[in-house]
Amino acid sequence: MIAMAMLGFAFPAQGQQPDEPYRSPTPILTSSPTGYVQSASSDMLSPLPPLIQSPLTQPPMSRSPMSQSPFAPWPSEPPPNAASSFDDSDPNHVRLASFPRDATEPLLDQPNNFVLIPEAQQPNLPPQRAGFFQRISATTTYLPRLNEDNSVGFADTEVYGVFGVPCPTRDSPLLIEPGTDFWVVDAPHFDLPPTLHDDYLEFHWLAKLNDRWGADLMVTPGWHSDYQNANGSQAFRMESHAVMAYTWSPTLKIAIGAAYWGRLNANIVPAGGIIWAPNPDTRFELITPKPRIAYRVDCGQTFERWAYIAGEFGGGQWAIEQTGGLDNELNYSDYRIMLGIEHKSLDLGLNGFAEIGYVFGRTLEYKFFLPNQNLSSTMMVRMGLSY
Predict the structure, then answer these.
(1) pLDDT surpasses 70 at 272
(2) Residue 152 CA neighbour count, 13 Å, CB half
(3) Is the alpha carbon torsion for 299, 300, 301, 303 positive or negative?
(4) Of 76, 246, 249, 301, which is least packed with CB atoms within 10 Å of its CB?
(5) Sorting pLDDT into bands at 50, 70 and 90, what band is 78?
(6) 3-state secondary structure (DSSP) of residue 145
(7) End-to-end CA gap in the chain
(8) Quick one: pLDDT at residue 369?
(9) Is residue 152 one of the residues assigned to a domain?
(10) What is the pLDDT at residue 60?
(11) Inter-residue contact 151 to 375 (CB < 8 Å)
(12) 213-227: average pLDDT
């Protein structure tokens, strides 16, 4: 299923002067002057891989970028003696390290995904977090049951951690993300369990293959059930995606790939599109299955705030036990349009976001015994914190 892509207009960040160098749109976990993000070993913390390069300095950004070609970098002239942003041999470049996923970053569930984010918006001076541990995040989502007779409500809370190790070298780290998602179901008129559970262990590999091509590979084994259905063939599911990204210019990337979800109504879905940064304050993430357009509305020395509009294909699938001890598989799906605001720390502080949205096209689908059931539309509220 493909979520909808929305368009919007950019506006400059408050507190940023026209001749001031561009400030990063996203906080990044990255290297220190003497080492990179590290992974644990028996003797010491070894460096986590450097991944991609970004100039330490940028020339002043034009405040009328739309007058330039969308395929050209923002600076009309490169600074003296500046190397190409694709020159891996330049020692004055900063390399980015690992990136935890977050619900507010639809770039294939990986915020600051260097494989997909255009080179011109790669951060200049990202923060660092040394060690095996990278981040812990918590997100809660609420969909109320607005219609008493023909609706189902959900409230779910997801908690996950992010850890990084070299795989197999420092240039290609593997992100390991254990997590759990606990769902409370409000469905008095349906034969559904009161709670649902998603427990998973995600392995996510990001790499620059050469100056132009990057790879984003993910595999996530998980157990999805109500903890009453003990049929492992129904509860265990392996999700994955494979995406290749081509750097067309410093402001434009093109991604192509596919995602395997293994759900009743969404087995294999396309994963790709274009990611375009026409100016420092705007990014168009026109990629499936989670398109988004983001605008930087405020920034300071240690923070940035972004507003965004996004689309999403939501839901999940679980092994459940119904009345009479019958084992079945339940698939819930919907489409979502959201408005959100996000606070990003640039010094490894607390990050947060809040969203409100409209949810439609809601369907309950069963693998056995029962026909599909259409549900009435509802609203959505989602909030999250990460550190």
Answers:
(1) yes
(2) 25
(3) negative
(4) 301
(5) very low
(6) coil
(7) 32
(8) 84
(9) yes
(10) 39
(11) yes
(12) 95
Which residues are CB-contacts of 104 (< 8 A; sequence separation ≥ 6)? 111, 308, 340, 342, 353, 355, 384
Q: Which helix (H) or strand (E) holds 232?
A: helix 232-235
How far, in whole angstroms, is CA 52 from its chain's centroid? 18
- CB-based contact 384:103 (threshold 8 Å): yes
Write out the residue range of the structural domain in which residue 177 sits.
38-58+80-386
Burial class of residue 67 in the structure, from the number of CB atoms within 10 Å of its CB (0-12 exposed, 13-18 middle, 19+ buried) = exposed
CATH number for 260: 2.40.160.40
Residue 88 half-sphere exposure toward CB, CA atoms < 13 A: 10
What's the sign of the alpha-carbon dihedral 271, 273, 278, 282? Answer: negative
How many Å apart are CA 327 and CA 230, to the nearest integer?
9
| Alpha carbon distances (Å) from 144 to 141, 147, 155, 162, 347 | 10, 9, 8, 30, 36
| Token pair recorded at residue 219 | 């595999």
Can you say how many angstroms the Cα of residue 268 is from the centroid of all Cα atoms in its chain? 19
d(CA 152, CA 187): 5
**Tokens linked to 104:** 């507010």
Residue 72 lies in a domain: no
Give the residue carrying structure tokens 């192509």.
256
Two tokens at 327? 């084992």
Cα–Cα distance, 334 to 315 (Å, whole number): 6
**Residue for token pair 């392996």:** 238
Q: Which residue has the tokens 């020692």?
A: 91
CB 207 within 8 A of CB 169: no
The average confidence (pLDDT) of the chain is 76
Report yes or no: 238 and 211 within 8 Å, Cβ to Cβ.
no
CA-CA distance, 31 to 270, in Å (whole number)? Answer: 33
Distance CA 337, CA 3 (A): 9
Q: Which two tokens stand for residue 268?
A: 């294999």
**Residue 96, token pair as written in the block:** 């980015």
> Structural domain tally of the chain?
1
As a whole number of angstroms, the distance between CA 64 and CA 76 comes to: 11
Nearest-angstrom CA–CA distance, 258 and 263: 14
Residue 89 lies in a domain: yes
Segment 58-83 shows an average pLDDT of 40
- d(CA 208, CA 245) in angstroms, rounded, equals 9
CB 76 within 8 A of CB 54: no
Quick check: is 74 in a domain?
Answer: no
